[in-house]
Here is the input.
Amino acid sequence: MIRLSHFGAVLMARNREFLRDRSSWAWNLIFPVLLIVGLAFVFGNDNAAVYKVGVYPGATDDPFFSTRYVQFVDVDNLDEAIARVDRHQFDLLLDTTGGRYWVNETSPKGYFVERVALVESEAAYERQPLTGRAVRYLDWVVPGVLGMNMMFACLFGVGYVIVRYRKSGVLKRLKATPLKSIEFILAQIISRLWLVLAITMGVYIGTNIFLNFTMNGHYLTLFVVLLLGAVCLISLGLLVASRTASEELAGGLLNVATWPMMLLSGVWFSLEGAHPLIKAVSQLLPLTHIIEAARTIMIDGASFFAVSGHLAYLLALTAVFLLAGARFFRWE
Here is the structure.
């Protein structure tokens, strides 16, 4: 049975330790803000030189599909593809079976690729105009930046700290007290959880005031995704630190966990055209599901049930990490 007095004492001690370490919490707060502002400055004018055209259900022998400097993307879901045209993610959408095409009348690139299509194509397509606000690269990358900051704060903020406790003998002293391991682990989880969520929400709200991110979904749904994602990543950090006694080994293991997620979870770029094996590996990583769910909510306006698959996977991973971490945890 968990004794609240023991749990509360460890929780307050960990909170004070973090808040007194000004360099640590300042870095967790300032770094993502600087990163988002820097990306806004660099990619503020998101006018790429390559056109992107969606094709439903697939390209044909029409001469237009051999046009240079145009990327043709086969799509399976027509409604989702139309929504991407509305948000300027596709410059044009062709329905090769229905003889229709969609173009956003407010898109400069859509205007030019439409002119090329009308000249090069031998088929007759019926025009379907759309009007919608463009999704900037900044809007797309913000969930990745927030997720990446959460990942580092959760993994290193829990895993590395527990290893330091073990190496310095703090855990050995706690073992001699009536404190149970479950009380200690829960205190670490709750302490890091509210700090990570507070920093993440503070960064989002503070930068959103000036940059006005796209948000088509509900903030409560986004909060649930961030909450479950943070718990999952904290649990992974606890698993890494459950038996590790060396700070060097812990740092290596944490880097092994973070770098694949940095590269394969869609933090900076989309894996839409990647090899199927790369996509399959990315779906095993918790950060992928956090970022994909957050992007779907913010950009597509997805409901709670639309991201329930991501949430279920995060819950399953959390259970596995916690059970394994509790099983292998040692005080010394």
About this structure: Residues 80 and 297 are 14 Å apart (CA to CA). The beta strands are 51-56, 70-74, 92-95, 100-104, 126-130. Residues 51-130 form one domain.
